[in-house]
């Protein structure tokens, strides 16, 4: 396994208490607001799927679907999904998923949020590099999105 292409890691210091950051992450509707997916009336429950239409311009025809792996209040949220699954005619169900992990830690100036997405080396080779590249840029943008969301809420 090549760790430089198997995982994406991002972190950001959010100038907000852990409880507020946790609500932005673990409340599905709040998550959807900053992440760009309509998860109205949804909850993140370990062992269950959650899904909703993507609201990001140009991707509205796609459905976000994730299997929630773990929810540890105010500390850890993890889900599995098919990375950069943007072809509406493709059947991704037989492909391995990547694991997305959010970890919260107290920091002197707020809350440190870390996100790690791992498992890219298991994605079919014909999609792997594009999925990695797109999700790498996507997580950079999502860290900015949650920072703005937490500051406004």
UniProtKB/TrEMBL annotation:
CDD domains found in the cross-reference section: SRPBCC_CalC_Aha1-like_5 (cd08898)
InterPro entries in UniProt: ASHA1/2-like_C (IPR013538), START-like_dom_sf (IPR023393)
Highest taxon above the source species: Bacteria
Ranges of residues in domain Activator of Hsp90 ATPase homologue 1/2-like C-terminal: 15-150
Annotated family: Belongs to the AHA1 family.
Protein name: SRPBCC family protein
Source organism of the structure: Dyella koreensis
């Amino acid at each position: 396994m090549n760790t430089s292409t198997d995982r994406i890691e991002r972190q950001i210091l959010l100038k907000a208490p852990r409880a507020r950051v946790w609500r932005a992450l673990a409340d599905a509707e709040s998550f959807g607001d900053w992440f760009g997916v309509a998860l109205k009336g949804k909850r993140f429950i370990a062992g269950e799927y959650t899904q909703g239409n993507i609201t990001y311009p140009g991707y509205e025809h796609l459905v976000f679907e994730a299997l929630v792996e773990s929810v540890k209040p105010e500390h850890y949220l993890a889900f599995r999904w098919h990375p950069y699954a943007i072809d509406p005619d493709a059947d991704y169900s037989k492909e391995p998923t990547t694991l997305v992990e959010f970890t919260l830690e107290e920091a002197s100036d707020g809350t440190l949020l870390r996100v790690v997405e791992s498992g890219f080396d298991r994605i079919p080779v014909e999609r792997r590099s594009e999925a990695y590249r797109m999700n790498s840029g996507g997580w950079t943008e999502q860290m900015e999105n949650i920072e703005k969301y937490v500051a406004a809420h």
